[in-house]
Amino acid sequence: MTCGRSSRLLPLLALLLVSQPALARTLVELDLPIAGSTPASAALAGAEALGAKGASLEVVQVYAIEGGTVVRLGQRHGGLRVLGSALAVMIQRGRIVALTGRLHDVAGVELAPGGLLTRATAEAAALAGEGPGASARRAELAIWPGRGLSAKPEPVWQVDTASARPFGLWRAIVHARSGRVLWRRSTIQHLDQQVLGRVYLHNPATGPLVDEPLLGLADPAILAGSYADVMSCTATQTHLECVRLAKPKDGHFLFAPSDPDLSDPFAEVQAYYHVDTFHRFMHRRFGFKRQGSQRIDVFANLKVTDKTGKVSGYPNAFFGDLDGDGQGDLSIGQTSRDYAYDGDVVYHEFTHSAVSETSGLEPDLDELGYNAMPLALNEGFADLFSSLFSGDPVVGEYAGAGGGIRNLVGTASCPASLTGESHSDGLIWGRTVWAIRARQHRPEGFDQVLYKTMVGLTLHAELADAAALLQKLATLHDPALGADVAQELKARGLEGCSRIVPLAPGQTLKGYLLGRAYLPGLPAAPGPLQYRVDVPADAVQVDVKLSGVQMFSSKIAGAYVRRGLPVAYGTKVTYDLAKPSNVSVLSLTLTDTKNLLQPGSSYYILPVNEGSYETTYSIQVEVPRPGPPEPPPAPASDGGAPPPAPTPSAPPAAPPEGAPATGDPAAASGCACQLGGAAAPAPLLGLALLALGVFVVRRRAR
After folding, report:
1. According to CATH, what is the number of the domain 500-626+671-687?
2. CATH 3.30.420 fits 119-186, yes or no
3. Quick check: pTM over 0.70?
4. How far apart are CA 199 and CA 202, in angstroms?
5. Cβ contact 575:567 at 8 Å
6. How confident is the model over 453-497, as pLDDT tens digits?
7. Which residues, 6 or more positions from 71, have their beta carbon under 8 angstroms from its beta carbon?
């Protein structure tokens, strides 16, 4: 790889891989002239200094946005594409203004042909199950970068196929050693046709019920078109069973609402209309396009079965790959109310798919523990684009009843509102951005800035990354808007928002932990947040109190504690002390040889969940203050009159100069003992979290 063109760029680019290869980085302190005749060549020239060891860069996608371009770069090694690597270069007004992303070190991947499947074998694996008449059209050997920090990159085959009955065009990723199909998706687009469907323009709470054109239908007899394919489905223990309940009468889909109803054709029509309408809005307003086919599968009236075969409605809605074809779907269930009836829910879940197509925003396991902030951003963007489309800050008036599911008007800030739960933390981003948008006379320009921010981030971006990029892009759009954004970001604490939360003695904070059932292979699920406690110099004892509330397990919240530095998470955990879940209070004192206290130090606490299921917790640190010394005993009387009682109004005598005052905490605390010894090694922790990360981020419940 050749070197970059600007010495100013080199140290900044180095941060993206050299400092913390596990983390995405967003650089906004850039204002560099571009070189090259096109945005693509300019982006390559500006980013070529980055690259992972032994790799090179190529242009993957070019997004035209207002005032410039976002160029997404990919990575090659040994001539093969590295799947999943991404670097986004933001160009505005002819300058490179921001850079974000992560590439992979794939120098050690074994590319020798020995042991790899042949093209013919990979094509056969991709065609398995497609039925008679299917054929392979193209196959490409590529590199899968691996899942998790310790996983090794491996070669895969990407195979394009065509099926005859039913007709379809497909793309599959086949493991080049085992032959296992990792994922599969359709690459077909269709022409538009129109029929009428009866729908709520928003939801039953706001109405109205109208007959509207259903655009994009490839076949006027079924709800499958350019942007959505809607069915009613039951998820069993092994597969997905789907039927089409909505069948047109006299050429139109005009059904009466029936809610709740697990066999409701109106829900299918409502889901189709709102997915299609919102997708067209995202394309028209922002230029959004899905990679490959623009059609997304939508599973309405979703039902689930347990091991006994009992069928019940699924009480939520989510974006995720339910049918296992490697392509994200929208799945919509119901409780006492059908979520498909609420357009806000549909827009919210579709925005998750838009995030998946652009920045990704997936959770990560890094040196601080479990990074849930990308999920918080994902939820915040989903709420925001749903609300800016509907023009209403309340998300889900009908599905959530009363005040809705969430409201983008209200107070939320960092670190005061951080809990580690993505929907809750997403309100920090959502309410901050909505407050800025509400002040704009013409919010359309700000909406473009917001979309650019979503597109310009990458997988593991945090709140501070999004804040920095929003600030940069707002300033470029309009300096007055930039000043407004800066003021709100500062007021809400998003500038430099960190996953390390200060915890004052006596303060109680709430948090959220995933369980080990969601993170298989880990002896304890690490929390998304660490807490920093600054111990007073005169402290003689510190009590760490951590309690969890969980329905299915007696083992709940424990913690790792480290003095001076954050708990370091990785292939092993570096810490000084541990609070098991069966100990309600961990006390550090000056005399305890096991839990020695160092007054005047900062302690970092990482909560962990030893149970199988998610839990909320509360954390509190108490620093008992030393009381005044006991007064000396009164001298024995020699038979005379007893000494007079002190006069209440008389002030106490001043102590001699240089002597400690009575009750002085420093005088009572004694000598502070050093917490000696090296960090105690923790059991080796598997990194299965990253393998599960795609499931967690894609299965984003409302």
Report:
1. 2.60.120.380
2. no
3. no
4. 8
5. yes
6. 999 998 999 999 999 999 999 999 999 999 999 999 999 999 999
7. 39, 40, 42, 43, 59, 61, 62, 63, 88, 89, 91
